[in-house]
Amino acid sequence: MSPAMSPNREKTILDLWERAAGLDRWKRDDALLAEEGAAPRGLGARNIGLLSIRTFLFGRFWKLRSNCSNCGTEIEFEVNGAALAQDLPRAATAGVAVLDWGGGTVVARAPTVDDLIAVATRHDTRQAVVRALVERCTEGTVEALELTEAAVEEFGDRLEQLDPAAIVGFDVVCPVCNHGWPATLDIGDALWIELRYAAERTLVEIDALARAYGWSEDEILRLSPVRRAAYLQLVEAA
Ligand SMILES: [Zn+2]
Q: pTM higher than 0.90, yes or no?
């Protein structure tokens, strides 16, 4: 059972769900992040923002699952979202770095969500996406079109490291076969699944009580969790 929810928190969940439903992935994250003002463009900053929304709505502990890539066993593990947000490295404020590359230097910056949107709409394979990102995020002597696939991958990794919180992962070890793997967490996706589930559950309850008693959404949201559960039991028993 989830902890009892205050009516305000439930209302926030419904408001966020309403604002973000039906949007594509990046716009959906924007809609969730808009609560705090304009959504940041940096991927790491967005992760940190989404993580704090998740902690605010659902508490600090987050149960996550990953499947062992060796034997397929499903592993459940718990993450402290508040501690994780604290520990995630903030990207260098300048957002630009000079990288040594191929005997010279290249000015590079971490990809933002706008870069991802721009390249995702024009390229469909992962390699093409990484190559386009390298082109967008570097200045100087890198001619991405002339780089080998391996060099593009390596350069992509270097760009990623400029914003370490852009990718959130955990080292997981399988208790069955002892295999270890890095489980990555897509915070926006995971938060959306949880948020949508919570919103839909609340809507089902509102629907049942509104039909039975004619109460408004507001009136139902103001019922204490104990009272609401009692009325729901009565409606079900009827
Ligand atoms: Zn395993």
A: no
